[in-house]
Fold these 2 entries.
Entry 1:
Amino acid sequence: MSGLPTTKPIRPLEVPVPVASRPRRLVGGILVAALVAACGAGGPTQTPSATSAPASTSPSETAPASTSPASDAPSSVASAPTSSGPSASPVALTVGLGYIPNVQFAPFYLADESGAYEQAGLHVTLQNKIDPDLVTLLGQGGVDIGLSDGTSVIPAVSQGIPVVYTSTIYGDFPSVLVTTSSTGITKAADLKGKKIGIPGRYGSSWIMLQALLQSANLTPDDVTIVEFPDFSQVAGLQQGRVDAATGFSNNEPIQLQNAGVTPVVLTVDDIVPLPGPGLVTGTATLQSKRDALAAFTKVTLDAMTEITADPQKGIDATFKAVPDLAADAGLQRQILDATIAAWKNDRTNGALGSIDKPGWQASVDFMTSLGLVPNKVTVDQLVDASLLP
């Protein structure tokens, strides 16, 4: 069987940890955490061979690490101007996107390339960092706003890191369980006694898997968990080493399909409405740059709407920002189409960006039952919809 195509989708945060390293600045103002640096966060560093699948690089699976409350925001953040009107000087915003530049960041690229951020009175720097940095940096004010997994925000706030989720980007939780038609697995109950591949017992995939199992009155003890620390669980699925593997709706199913394998995907959205990746900022930054953050949010959501109506705009903007991706335009379009599908919450049918507070409460309750929320938190501590247009 042929190897899977190499893809580099978004990897939003799993667990906030202290700052580990600083990425290098590259051409175009985009900061890239190279895959070599990603190894320090538990990410892969090697190009997959023809006989193995590339590591999962969709919404992230960063190995857990200890967390601590973030320090006070730097004085440069506290003194930043809050006006983003056309007559004021542009307000600088550093935007953390997570991992390497990819087509799934198309709305940010389109808003930047079109000059929409600039027209809104913003000077935006798009930045990519390895996962362990971002939540802590947001809490410290070192990054103004970033894309982070909602299931990372809950334990972070519970442990005193001063961040808040302000806008939904992925309305449908992107973490999924993928298998093939040959296994006979079509529902959660079919997982009993099966081997399931996962990077480790942490992060959004581990939370998702427990929810799937619980929906069928199963626990992890009813299956065999096979850990793939190098994120090669889909290769394990192809090789028959496991019966199913965790992944992301805009990555692993596409990889399997392109390799000539019919994927079967189990999702968690109808079981527990876990919050997907969205825009997150530090509480101090929210106060000091509220107007600029609101303008940024509106422009970004407008770009998402444009791309939903005409995906080619997202493809064109991505190829301008990351020319290397144009080498496989067909694959990039598949990834973008799957990403667009995940932006809309099919359960609530809310507008792009809207925050499903009842879903967040259900998520807090579920994660608390798993022992992942050490200190009680309320939804109002976790989310703030005041930046939405």
Note: Residues 108 and 300 are 6 Å apart (CA to CA).
Entry 2:
Amino acid sequence: MLLLLINTEFISCASFSHVFWVDASSHESITMTLKGISNMPAAQASGVDGSVESVLQWIAHIQEEWLIVYDNADDLVPEVVAKFFPSGDGGNILITSRNRSMGRIISFRNMIEISEMEEPDAIALLLKASYLEPSAEHQQAAKNIVAELGCIPLAVNHAGAYIEAGKCDINGYLRQLFLHRQTLMSDAAFTGASNYNQTVYGTWDLSFREIEKRANGQSTTGNAQAAKAAILILHICAFYHHSNISKDIFRSAAEESRKYTIDDDVAGKLPYIHTLLDHTLQSLLALDDDGLWDDLIFGQGISILFSFSLIKRGQTLEMLSFHPLVHSWSREKMAKSERERMCQM
């Protein structure tokens, strides 16, 4: 998950005269939250009339230090969120988002990415969420669990809530995870394990649904071809090892594909796999006039996956990596027939 500027759990409200929390998950939620602020006694005393414009104008003119947090700004384009900023240079604005492009409306030097925890912190969080004493036995069991979960805070918190609810003890959690990973990571009973109010897999499902909307032409952000490329790259890479997937795999496939020209006369004679690759991957494996890989569409697809924090850089710029849990999720969310098709690719 990507958080811009700061993890809002660590905000000290004592530092500000006013703290405003805005649900930025949609245009409508921002509007509704801001209108709700107009009911605050301080706003009423200042003559705020209930409109969004009046609320923003009032906030902008508060003389003391104030803070406004735009929370869960995952799906909106940055410029839409920026329209709801109070004018002027006073006060403080924080944005939490999984969308890296939100950095366009702030200074990139003010962007902090929160991903995996340090192992000792993850162990402490798991034991706290599990309501367990930090005994040597519990510490060792927790160490094994957080290693398997990749120290993702939401996943660790979720595991702790599962153990605390009596579903299993801490020594039995890993076996449950190995046998029922998808069920555990999608268990809606534990969305309350953190303030984010999403399951572990549910968090990435939200991102994937937004990419699907773009691919189907149902979104005003991004182009459909790039979104389709992002989905295809995500699905294909689910069948490689999760770390250091080389772009050369795709470059080699593109340059090899020129050896196979499929038309109606020969399509039935070629191996099925070449037909599959030609028809489905042609946009990703396009060649330029010199017969070299034209990686424009591939790059656009990768850019979308980066923007939703579904993929990260490997050891070099030519390498791509997934967090192990994201990698498992991307494979497990596919139907069996789709898994077989992508594995063949």
Note: The mean pLDDT is 81.
